[in-house]
Automatic annotation (TrEMBL):
One of its GO terms (molecular function) is carbohydrate binding. It comes from Treponema saccharophilum DSM 2985. This is Monosaccharide ABC transporter substrate-binding protein, CUT2 family. Residues 322-392 form the MglB-2 periplasmic binding protein domain. InterPro entries: Bact_Solute-Bind_Prot2 (IPR050555), MglB-2_Peripla_BP (IPR040740), Peripla_BP_I (IPR028082), SBP_2_dom (IPR025997). PANTHER family: D-GALACTOSE_METHYL-GALACTOSIDE BINDING PERIPLASMIC PROTEIN MGLB, D-XYLOSE-BINDING PERIPLASMIC PROTEIN. It is found in: Cell envelope. The keyword Membrane does not apply.
Amino acid sequence: MKKLAGSLIAVAVAAGALTGCNEKNSAPKVLNKDKPLVFFNRQPSDPQTGAIDMASMNWNDNTYYVGFDAAGGGAVQGKLIADFLAKSDPAVVDRNGDGTIGYVLCIGDVGHNDSKARTEGIRRALGTWAGSPDPVKIQEGKVNVGGTEMKVVELEGKAMTGTDGSTWNANAATEAMGGWATKFGDAIDLVISNNDGMAMGCLQASNFPAGVPIFGYDANADAIEAIGAGKLTGTVSQNVDAQATATLQVLRNLLDGLTGDDVVTSGITKNDKYGNKISAAVDYIPSTKALLAQNTGVNKDNWQLYKAGMRDEQIRQSNAPEKKVLLTIYNSADNFLSSSYLPALNYYAPLLGLKLTVVQGDGQNESSCLDKFTNFGNYDAFAINMVKTNSGRDYTDKLKY
């Protein structure tokens, strides 16, 4: 009996040791509400006032926004246009010789902060800013054209909304441009757009006035090629590779357990432990928990530097353990996201050890993304690109459970 009792005690001790070992080695389960969350490209905000939705940004300590400097980008686009005019011949730019520079403006979405910033940047550069990005609130401006001060008027600004309700719509821009060309004729001296998709849409109008300077924003691949071919005059790069990498890098840092400043600097403004660091300038705004890539103007002088496939060579393959990320794209038809942002995400994600599951919406109904935002237990982190900028809570509410 003594021998048997001793054996039972030994088994019990061994079993206890094994249980303790398993408890020690098993990682605690992370609740969905505590997992890393990055909003990108569309900053949670009020579509009327532009106020940042800090309730969404403070969802948890692991919530951040990654985008670009919208106000700075608007200023860059405005300067690109003003610099072009300053070097132009007034007799060439002023097509009807009336001493006035007339332009038409494609507005992406009157409720979108980026659209508002670009409209403001354009109007400030041309002197037509009247204190509001509203399509009809404008004033007469002045601008330097080849050393001559000339009057500027915004002939018409219009929000490009498709028949399906989607904003930033290229087809709507084609239709609008056709109407403008008929309505204003040679009074149109410039065509300006809040993004490349709508600018390229304008060029598709059968009666687009040949030779009229046209400016976009985004530096999409087709727009860059159009600059090289002399069809598009200029655009603005919001450094999509820096944005895409920063979106992924913040998630990687949080998943690796980094805290404090390291979350927004490691692999972004300083080398991470894998040797990665974003080449382009990216600034962190603590008050809004936002990482913002800087913008650069693109024209016939430097367009070759922005051709498709020019990836950041400072982001290399790492040995980071694979983690799974559920990522939403607000509109599968959005030219910038589909042709520039998503390919960049798909390029950099494997280098950083992240496996993406991408769900895409229709650009009109939040449910087109939200209904696919599910099965959270299968993922380690989330990246959200909303249909509407005031929909942040719709996503965080789903993560409560």
